[in-house]
Sequence to fold (467 residues):
Amino acid sequence: MPELPEVAALVAALENEAKSKRLLRVLTKEAGGGPRDGLYDDLVFSGTEEQEMHRVLEGRALTGVGRKGKHLWMELSLLPSPPSTSAAFGVGNGRRGGDEGARNTSTLTTSSAPQEDKRFVLFHMGMTGSLLFQHVAIPQYRSFSLDVSKGWPPKFCKAQFIFGNCEEGKDDEAIQLAFCDQRRWGRVQLLPAGVKDPRMEAPLKELAPDAWKERPSLQVFRDKLKETDIAIKAALLDQGRVLSGLGNWVCDEVLFQAKVDPARRCKALTEGDVRRVWESVDYVCATACAANARSEGFPTGWLFHYRWAKTKKDMAGAKGPEGRRMVFETVGGRTTAIVPSVQRVRRGGDEEKEMGEPGEDGAGVGRGKRKQKEEEDEFEQIMTKKKISKGKRCVKEEVMEEEVGIGRGDEKAESPSIISERAIKVIKMEKDVKMNIPASEKTTTPRRSSPRVKAGEVKTKGKRAKK
Fold:
């Protein structure tokens, strides 16, 4: 799904290329190929009638562009009626361009219905939606993209907006904007007449503050997080809870920069966690938007450049920044990239220390003495129970599996230093404890009785012999 940086790049492109230009025509039949080619997609247009889209929008000028979260809107204002020569513009969708263009122009010039001074068209990209200019390159979402070089309009084009100066002989300055969406989850919504600010209307009024332009204070941010006990990534993905505009890759990047585990519960976050997440939201959004959402402009140490593994094989051997091991888990219903040596932390005493991955040098350091003593006491209690009820051959394996995580694929395995300490304790205690294997665990294989040797006979190998 296009996220805050990609939508912000679309806003910038619209302002640079089409602002103050007149919307000459709106083509609302699907084009470019696909199963619905030539049809009006009332699902994408949120139930707005096709004729109303033409009647209300054509002939207006683009006087403003705005964004909140992942939503984008165009502000279109009334101008003096354009001359009828607008039908001469040779733009459209190829085989249907001429007929539909003539119909749209006649609708514009013959309509006498009263119209409000300003109308707003709201766009939401859904999972695979995108806005594309015919001759202007716009950054697209990394996981999917459309190639406009293969022809215009692009495949799955739901609508085309054709802007120009509306002066005869200047058709070469016409600008074509297409809205494409393969999965039909995106929306093009004409807001009702009389709306002055789209942010005060549904669905924008239900969104949380924009993560970049309306980021709340640290105190408000902290209070919102502490209201829930879901995973921090799930809270950030919820567009109506804390912030709006953050999607999957932005959340992963924010939490990586903040050194916070995406699966950690909000109420378990420390003050340091909250502050780092709050600061990272601004850093990631500002940096990505300054680069116009072009990944080549992102810092080389960002997780973004490493998180796009598709197959299980690629995920299994994925490496993150600085060659660190990277794992993929499902958090908040989305595939999540995590660098355990950076984001999986262990607390000791009053300090917060990074814990290295199992097998790395220095793993497990920073554990406070009090915490270590508590673990040793807990281990002693577990061993006391096990030496009473379990056989000697079960002790070592079960203690290792249940307490350390070995043998079960447990992701939160202890560090090698702690494993070795516990193994030594097991070995020492085994020497001092006399274990009795329960009868139920004994193997009762019947023994083969040897024949009784008679008096005067000597038992020899394989036969009996007399003296």
